[in-house]
Amino acid sequence: MPVEFLIDEITPTSGFFVRCHTYTPQVKLAEWKLTVDGLVGKPLTLTMADLKKLPRTELVSVLECAGNGRSFYEPHLPGAQWKFGGVGNARWAGVRLRDVLQLAGLKPGATQLLLDGADVPLGKMPDFQRTIEVAKAQHPDTLLAWEMNGQPLTPEHGFPLRVVAPGWAGDSWVKWLQHIEVLDHDFDGFWMKTAYRHPSHPVAPGAAVDAKDMIPVTDLNVKSVIASPGDWVKPGLVSVQGVAWSNGSPVAKVEISDDAGKTWQSAKLGGGGTKYGFRRWACSWKAAEGQHALIARATDAAGRTQPMQEDWNPSGYLWNVAQPRNVLVSAVKPATAIAADSAGVAVPEAYKAACMTCHDDHMMRMQHLTRAQWEREMDKMTGWGAEVKAADRTAIVDYLASQFKP
Ligand SMILES: Nc1nc2c(c(=O)[nH]1)N[C@H]1C(S)=C(S)[C@@H](COP(=O)(O)O)O[C@H]1N2
Ligand SMILES: [Mo]
Predict the structure, then answer these.
(1) Per-residue model confidence as pLDDT tens digits over 9-53
(2) Residue having the nearest C-alpha atom to atom 18 of ligand 1
(3) Contact call for residues 15 and 284 (beta carbons, < 8 A)
(4) CA of 192 to the centre of ligand 1 (A)
């Protein structure tokens, strides 16, 4: 999502980022129902009309992908190469998850809710299934929502029903929800056991981390983004503006620096911020001719501040460095540079056949990986069903490692 969309408190749905691990399922409401089973007194099969008989609840909350900002990590990591735009703030409406659980009646020993949407995995890829612990499910702010910004959810954002887990990263906000199974144990599916985990203690950049030291990603970090000016602005007094958010702790302070953090100027916070939503901020800046790196840094009421340097984690989650934004101050708008393409390099046929079936090559082009990392991606993708002949593997890795390198 372009940063310009982050100027408003509520992000318009038309500009809101979309993140799907596979293709968007087209769910027909007449055929859809929500099943609640497992460790419950009374298993349920609910239609949308049934859900709408429960008390309607509305709430404004930020939704941020755990991988937002991943492209800033050094060393580079595979995955969606987000910069600033994997975040938005919307008004969600639906019912409290705990009201649904009350209808079903949790049995003693219930610890986790297994959440499954209508999206279908590709090849042998593991199904996107997530669990949330009962305490988060019972929290009055955790919703099953059918509305986003006053309209029914769009197919991309989870029509007809999705989880809203305020304060937590996007991976828990399961879309196209159709099945809740109550468990008495930790679920060991790929997207809980392997993906969406980070180290419980600081680790050196690039270090391998023992699986037993990896804990699930839950809470968002305190963070801010500069929405305006964009890459270029005329000299003079400029209003620097943007939004800030945290995990449910109100944003208490936003500061701006144009000298790499040597000095800071306080921004004025917008009024009316909500617990989990964006808080707008603005600050005047004397923009002198030249290239500048503007930095915004937010602090929340719990005293958490954006760091100047990130703790590393092996999947590139929850980046929240007070990240410099480059702004060119000049009287005339610069011509837009056209990015050089790797035209002229022959694309191996075996690569096209093996790797451009489930997705196209934008997935590979955005990565900046070492040969060893590309070898690991090959293993992951063949495990998920990519068909690579033994004789072709080296040529494919040669191509990837030479074209899409750090
Ligand atoms: N069923 C299902 N739910 C899902 C996903 C998915 O791939 N399948 N992606 C998750 C991730 S990683 C994020 S960041 C959010 C993104 O929500 P959005 O596309 O509405 O912005 O949805 C989450 N819910
Ligand atoms: Mo995500």
Answers:
(1) 999 999 999 999 999 999 999 999 999 999 999 999 999 999 999
(2) 18
(3) no
(4) 14
pLDDT in tens, 213-233: 999 999 999 999 999 999 999
Residue 118: count of CB within 10 angstroms of its CB? 19
Instruction: Kindly identify the ligand whose nearest atom is closest to the C-alpha of 155.
Output: 1
Of residues 248, 293, 264, 310, the one with CA closest to residue 60 = 248
Residue partners of 302: CB distance under 8 A and separation at least 6: 246, 249
- Can you say how many angstroms the Cα of residue 334 is from the centroid of all Cα atoms in its chain? 32
DSSP 7: G
Q: Which residues surround ligand 2, an ion (CB under 5 A)?
A: 19, 65, 170-171
Lookup: tokens for 297? 């840094």
Task: Output the ligand 1 site: residues, CB below 6 A.
Answer: 16-21, 63, 65, 117, 119, 128, 156-158, 170-171, 173-176
CA 165 → CA 97, 161, 168, distances in Å? 10, 13, 6
Q: Which atom of ligand 1 is nearest to the CA of 163?
A: 24
Report the C-alpha gap between 6 and 107 in whole angstroms: 43
**Which residues have a Cβ under 8 Å from the Cβ of 277 and sit 6 or more positions away?**
9, 10, 60, 61, 62, 89, 245
User: Is 137:9 a contact under the CB 8 Å cutoff?
Assistant: no
pTM over 0.90? The answer is: yes
- Complete domains list, the chain, with CATH: 3-216 (3.90.420.10), 223-329 (2.60.40.650), 349-403 (1.10.760.10)
375: left (phi over 0), alpha (psi -120 to 50) or beta: alpha
Between 259 and 273, where is the model more confident? Answer: 259
Tokens of 404: 């899409």
Mutate which of 20, 65, 143, 154 to test ligand 1's pocket (most atoms within 8 Å of Cβ)? Answer: 20
Question: Closest residue (by CA) to atom 12 of ligand 1?
Answer: 171
Residue with tokens 């029509």: 159
Helix 393-403 and helix 371-383, axial crossing angle in degrees, nearest 10: 130
Does residue 290 have a pLDDT over 70? yes
* Radius of gyration from C-alpha coordinates of the chain: 23
Atom of ligand 1 lying closest to residue 16 CA: 21
- The first and second tokens of residue 302, run together, are 């719990």
Looking at all shown ligands, the one closest to residue 19's CA atom is 1
